[in-house]
Amino acid sequence: xxxxxxxxxxxxxxxxxxxxxxxxxxxxxxxxxxxxxxxxxxxxxxxxxxxxxxxxxxxxxxxxxxxxxxxxxxxxxxxxxxxxxxxxxxxxxxxxxxxxxxxxxxxxxxxxxxxxxxxxxxxxxxxxxxxxxxxxxxxxxxxxxxxxxxxxxxxxxxxxxxxxxxxxxxxxxxxxxxxxxxxxxxxxxxxxxxxxxxxxxxxxxxxxxxxxxxxxxxxxxxxxxxxxxxxxxxxxxxxxxxxxxxxxxxxxxxxxxxxxxxxxxxxxxxxxxxxxxxxxxxxxxxxxxxxxxxxxxxxxxxxxxxxxxxxxxxxxxxxxxxxxxxxxxxxxxxxxxxxxxxxxxxxxxxxxxxxxxxxxxxxxxxxxxxxxxxxxxxxxxxxxxxxxxxxxxxxxxxxxxxxxxxxxxxxxxxxxxxxxxxxxxxxxxxxxxxxxxxxx
Amino acid sequence: xxxxxxxxxxxxxxxxxxxxxxxxxxxxxxxxxxxxxxxxxxxxxxxxxxxxxxxxxxxxxxxxxxxxxxxxxxxxxxxxxxxxxxxxxxxxxxxxxxxxxxxxxxxxxxxxxxxxxxxxxxxxxxxxxxxxxxxxxxxxxxxxxxxxxxxxxxxxxxxxxxxxxxxxxxxxxxxxxxxxxxxxxxxxxxxxxxxxxxxxxxxxxxxxxxxxxxxxxxxxxxxxxxxxxxxxxxxxxxxxxxxxxxxxxxxxxxxxxxxxxxxxxxxxxxxxxxxxxxxxxxxxxxxxxxxxxxxxxxxxxxxxxxxxxxxxxxxxxxxxxxxxxxxxxxxxxxxxxxxxxxxxxxxxxxxxxxxxxxxxxxxxxxxxxxxxxxxxxxxxxxxxxxxxxxxxxxxxxxxxxxxxxxxxxxxxxxxxxxxxxxxxxxxxxxxxxxxxxxxx
Lengths: 440, 440
Prior knowledge:
The first copy, chain A, is an alpha/beta fold and 440 residues long. Chain A contains 16 helices and 16 strands. Chains A and B meet through α3, α10, α12, α15 and α16 of A and α3, α10, α12, α15 and α16 of B.
């Protein structure tokens, strides 16, 4: 089906007033002023949007554990260790493949209703029913990492190979990533093996889209100590980043979540190796981990994208909220309101995320790009008046202002309803799962 | 009209599961388990809510300049001085009474659609058409401060007296407050005069509800220097708080916005005098002013409520968002996820606000209290599953999940529509005003 999407403002390379987008199959064929686009499209285009809409590329959540929707609000306001050991892990031990899938369906439904069209998620993997199968049932784009831990090395490597074979590039929506969990849970040998697997996979599946490495680095300032204790290794100048660099695992395929506590000189290594950083300001605040100084990273030319982290430590998958908090925090820690202006924050949530996931045709409304597009209803009291669409997108738009969501050229969500799935079915399934998980 | 409001959870002194509230006129007659309440109410009760609703007291925005909706997003990411001098003030100079009223109507509509039922606002005052008249047209509760500045002393005092006579306690919804702007814009004599006026007014209007003093204190860490320079005064131990205390203006009638940069010993004075603090975390971040350490204030037993500040420096009137950011920030600066748990933050947005505004029958769902009640629709993907309603209220509920709003016993807002006002009328008016303000 061909679509013509119209907006009072269309956010492309620049802001197009009274703009339109022509979509054929899953590709943006043209974008520009409506009067010009209209001339070039023939019949058979279904029209969406209009003069009361702000049209943007779909948002990208570049770090989460999407199935953790199941544990949203299950245990808040605890310390990280209590939270994990007393609350989260005992319940996670009971999770079944169908739970992981259902959690991902719930997370995809939530994400899309808030304008997020692509997610990078890392969680437990099972062959048939998992986060990938969940996203596909809703019609969401995702890069699904399979986790690697030293304590279950062989199983983890098996899972990655299985996921790659079964899911990577089998359809337009799903890619697989390798997910060494963190420097304090992955030993040096496994890091090196993960990098070899990554290179092997990118070679073998060269025509199916890049495979990235997704991980957590320096969320906690105690991480250097933890790594040294756990694996009895030396950290050059006490730096976890230098240690990983020496292992040879740092390059542009790495998407590192958090990166809160970098040493001064680490920034140059991150820049030189082209590492991508997924900034998760909400979870970092909520768990008391600190505030990553991302305006410094961005000024240095490092690619920084946005993530929500898992919905159990957030407790949503709301990238609009994440944009606003990211902007506000940098102004506060820099004591400078001009830091990280709205347009730059919007790029973190779109094109920077696409770069981090190694898509070269995503995250912008541009000719030839994938048609992941979100329509925002401007007829809301909190969106009146409008002076600057970027300012609105970061500071005023509420995630639930999202009216219509197009993913890979398909209308997945429109005015509160999904074309792919029924709320009642998923809510009933979630209720059953929670009853089982919470029973002794 | 009598109302029976039902909820899966009703937030009263405690959480009532399968609860109900009986409302007669503007008063909560009873609250408890539905099966008990139902027995005590007769016919003629209109029923709202049901098993898919979370029912809470209306939220209280205890510091804003509500008519500044007109300048939402007009000038973002500038330094405070540029923002005021080059952008905000030149436009404000063109504002007419009907603009102030229209801005307040837009702000009230926005606020109510996000579950805020009471606002404390301070802005320009005109006799007939002003923030009070705007709120009344929508049906919102408000404490309206009239601003005092040294540079226009007589006019300001006249305005306060006029507002008091014309608006205070003339209906169920509106109270007037006196608003000395800040220590660096109000000279010592005017502070003393303001306090005398306040005492006089509270005496004269003793049966009409308390009149409070609303002001800004220590938003900027340069404030002590500014005060000294401007008015050639001594600050005992360099403290603005001690200076004001020496003037005799500090007591429980004071609601001080911001209070970011208190000296160590100031906290004891604030506690001793019973000053109320309105915490505005979003505007404080956005303007690069800093983060008020409110968990310390609360631990000391000081009453801290929440505000959005003006929508031009936020850029919304969203108290749900403010709750979440307030909770997150304290966890970050204390480096402790157990700081400021959800229930305490919810109190900041409700009962603490009521205390700050000197209402003794507002901010809780309790027998004999004013019926300002908000129904939240729980049938949303981001609200599944639900373990703890307080956690949901602070971390997961989006402001636009608000389904129905009751103010002073009246259904003002239901499923996106107002009973009192038409969106089209107000949007058209706002468009006209903006066109005029922005023309040369």
